[in-house]
Amino acid sequence: MSQAPKRVPMYIQLKNYILDQMNKGIWKPGDKLPSENELAEQFQVSRITVKNAMADIVEQGLIYRIQGRGSFIADDASEQRIAYEQPETGRSFVAFLMPRLNNLFTANLASGIEEELAHHGYHLVFRLTHDSQPLENKILKELTRLGVKGIIIYPVEGETFNDEILKLTLGHFPLVIVDRYLRGLDTNCVSSDNYTGAYEATKHLTGLGHTKISFISTAVTGTTSIEDRLHGYERALSDAGLYIDYRLRLSLNTDNPVEQVKAYLADNPDVQAIVATNATIGQIAKKAADCLKIRVPDQLSIVCFDNYEQSDLFDVPLTYVNQNEKAMGKEAAKLVLSLIQDPAQDRRNVVLPTKLVIRSSTVSASSADPLTSSAASGTQAQ
User: Fold this and answer.
1) 110 and 18 within one domain
2) How far, CA to CA in Å, does 240 sit from each of 194, 208, 211, 235, 346?
3) HTH gntR-type domain: from which residue to which, for each copy (predicted)?
């Protein structure tokens, strides 16, 4: 008696169907696949069956998932695997990508990475992305083709992350994100405790008796480090029993941020203190105040994230949140070297503590002079 043919499990049938659609070019790179519910209904199977089929294809690097958006066909997935399988080309090189190198924070971060890599016999390939996500994407592709052993990236700010980061992560390429994490994507990352840093900065100001505390940043949405700082600021206000006034938030979005802050301070003369999300914004706020003849700290207290070059030589060194960016760079380098040895290890999120460094830009509200008259006269003098 002949044996009945073995029945092919449904998840394998579904997997073969998806691969067939891709091979025939019906579903092309970048195309969004039908949802799990749609595939389950089309093939009259459970969502578990669909999940099993999709998981196999994701594991092969042929499709990728974005939380809240769905599954997509990978772009040149096979080429990417080949690029990574060229160990001899970039035997001792690790790349570091960052948007710009224009302040003490980024310089110290790069220095920490380079020192740790050099200690282990690796060389640093440094590239600037100039705040351009398309350029960031292009450079990542170039580096993987060159065969670098690992990549550390300080991502461009924005609401989305580029596809190349996603594909490298899903393909277990030794990739480490610094300064922030990417929401919706499980990556290896090293960052500061931005929430606590902002909380302590704001708590310092509320402890001095300030109640009208402004939060000044670049665009918040999509950049987790800034989002976490905003949440820390808001929590500190709430813990102090203060109302969260959205009028006190300012997002810099012009080519002349000093003028934007000047206009903001003139329109909001009740502002007593500022939390700035980086040293550049802190200095912009100080310059805007000077232009309006608002005295820091007598009439306006300022706290920023990060120190800045030769800050002790300024007339009023700003109180700041120290992120210890050099240590952040060293930790990022250690993590990428660990991933080079074992790319399939569990992903890690390293969070480093911050420290508030109190200097002369903050004083108690009781000893501060009223701001209103200065802001008004400064506006009239323009």
Assistant:
1) no
2) 19, 11, 9, 9, 39
3) 8-76
Burial 87-116 (b: 16+ CB within 10 A, else e): eeebeebbbbbbbeeebebbebbbebbbeb
In this prediction the pTM is 0.72
228 with 362, same domain? yes
Count of CB atoms within 10 A of residue 314's CB?
A: 15
**If you write DSSP's letter for every residue of 305-346 in order, what string do you get?**
ES--TTGGGSSSPPEEEE--HHHHHHHHHHHHHHHHH-TTSP
Q: Report residue 299 as tokens.
A: 């009439």
- What the block records as the tokens of 311 is 């800050």
Greatest CA span in the chain, whole angstroms?
A: 103
Is 4 a member of any domain?
Answer: no
Q: One-letter amino acid identity for 155?
A: P
Interval 145-172: pLDDT, tens: 888 999 999 998 775 677 888 888 888 8
20 or 376, higher pLDDT:
20
Run of H or E residues at 150: strand 148-153
181 and 304 within one domain: no
Answer yes or no: are the C-beta atoms of 334 and 302 closer than 8 Å: no
**Amino acid in position 210:** H
Q: What is the pLDDT of residues 88-120, one digit of tens each?
A: 444 589 999 999 887 888 889 999 999 999 999
Distances (CA, A) of 291 to 71, 177, 302, 377: 52, 38, 15, 11
| 242 and 152 both lie in a single domain | no
- CATH number of the domain within which 230 lies: 3.40.50.2300
Per residue in 268-283, pLDDT tens? 999 999 999 999 999 9
Do 330 and 320 lie in one domain? The reply is no
DSSP 162-180: -HHHHHHHHTT--EEEESS
